[in-house]
Amino acid sequence: MAKLKELAAQKERFVGGHRGCAGCGASIIARQVLMAAENPVVVGASTGCLEVFSTIYPYSAWNVPYIHNAFENVAATMAGVEAAYKVLKAKGKISKDLRFIAFGGDGGTYDIGIQALSGMIERRHRVLYVCYNNEAYMNTGIQRSSATPRGAHTTTSPAGKVIPGKLQPRKNLTEIIIAHEPAYAAQATFGYWNDLITKVRKALDAEGPSFLNVYAPCRLGWAYAPEKTVKVSKMAVESCIWPLYEYQDGKYRITIKPKEKKPIDEFLKMQGRFAHLFKWKDDVPIKEFQEEVDYIWNRLLKRSEVL
Amino acid sequence: MIVARTGNEAMAEAMRQINPDVVAAYPITPATEIVQLFSKFVNDGLVDTEFVPVESEHSACSACVGASASGARVMTSTSSQGLALMHEILFIAAGLRLPITICLVNRSLSSPINIHCDHSDTMASRDAGWLQIYTENAQEAYDTTIQLVKIAEQALLPGIASTDAFIISHGMERVELIDDKEVPKFLGERKLNYSLLDVDNPITLGPLDLQDYFFEHKRSEIDAMDNVLPIIEKVQKEFGDKFGRYYPIVDEYKMDDAEVAILVMGSTGGTAKVTVERMREKGKKVGLVRARVYRPFPKDAMTKALSKPKVVGVMDRSDTMSTLGGHLYNDARSILYKSDKQPLMKNYIYGLGGRDISIEEIEAIYGQLFDIQKSGEVDKDVVYFGVRGE
User: Fold this and answer.
1) Would you call A96 an interface residue with chain B, using a CB distance cutoff of 8 Å?
2) What is the ipTM for the molecules in this complex?
């Protein structure tokens, strides 16, 4: 358990003054993840919101070494950084014990970058990959991704007269990563900051590749007031839209179990991207979404119980 | 030590002796052998390299960028589609001024798919900001690989050393190897201004660079290209002084009194040299210019070489698809625009997809150039040599 007092006393590694929106989830994640790291870190970011708003030359929000290469290749880039570290350390050119963190949005992680990520984990590079998952391509102006939930309005899955937003369910990337048998994998969100920080520490301590899928409410793309960001993050957990769990050594563990599982309506109602669902001719889209959430939650409960 | 080696083996030997910190690579015909041989060196403990067997060439180039930015000496190898898949990251490596070296085998780009030699792969990447040196034989491939690491690190530019698919990559030749201990001595350590791994002095690499600064940064990259030729000359001379093999920027062969000449790249240079010798025996004043360093384009040395003969036939193993002929031809014509000694010039696109070029065919080209010299006219600027129906 991290102590808030200690965290607050730390020197900031991701500083303010950047161009993130008010209420931006991604920037909170970058700050909390770096706060959690107990060793010096080297950071990579894929092209996306975080990269754009944190490094508009000649300014940088990063108080740690940082590299941005391209959109789909942060995992490969950081694999190269880690490889260089291993050999230069073996040659005695580096003495410090460093950790490596890659940040990518859901576009850079679920979609265009999944190949490089799969390769990085399969080759067992000791890198923590953090997906700040805001469930659409926000940087280019809110287009659907494979992380976008069914029913959500995006600019390429608009709420239309005959089609109510995105039709397909979300890809379950966390499970795809778990199938790679990483040293550590988890879902988190900043509303439960201590849970996130604990998971970052576990991931960085794990001797091998690790992955965190961090739910990142986006006030612009999800259409809610900036001050609601943390509330939306918490409601995602309470409604089991975003279960908080971890996987290590073959074991699943739910880290935060909601006291009372709320219907997804309470989460959906907070956001403009789902507003059309409540005006739709029937309740089928919401019902199907609820069934999907229940199915995944129940499966997770079973997996956690069995083990 | 004198040994028999294919071009691929020679390049792999060079990599073993260079002993780079990181190699991230993905196999592709006909460059696969380089990666294969190098993996064996790694697993036999002959090098200290961290080998990253990536899942694509895109990731190969991306991992090279990460490793090079971390201060490592970094190499990779690829060909054709592999280089095309790296394309996006080639520009990033150059823009970040990372001295990565690629041992490349020139193979045609699909479609139609083909595994044999032409220069369409590297030509498609000629504007990426990488040094490009095309070699004529296995010896030159070996020597150039070693030289290029040093050139790249001094210029802070990435570079490609290439051989022709199968003709050089798989052709067994006599190669003189340098003593293992001498190569690291020749190269020295990579000097670093910055490193990602220096956590006490954090840097931000690859920031968003908008209208206010982008142009200046790009201009400084062009500056580096502008200033690299003296570095190449210096390293080539150091190499020659130490190991006895001297290389020019532009390879001139029997040009001093040549009436007609051809301009070529790669392995065809060797075939053309034999042709020149045969024709010289018959009293024909023919010469040869081989573009060894292609990026940057050595304007002065090339202008000097091409100003000597009356007629130049430019042989391109690639086409620009612009209806204006081949890449080398366009560059050569461009630099001679202001020359007061413009030769008549004809472009021969040849050998696409690995179609062989023989001594007799090159002799026929020289014959056509003599006809042009006689008539003083070029009937057709661009011809496709050795293709059916032409």
Assistant:
1) yes
2) 0.97
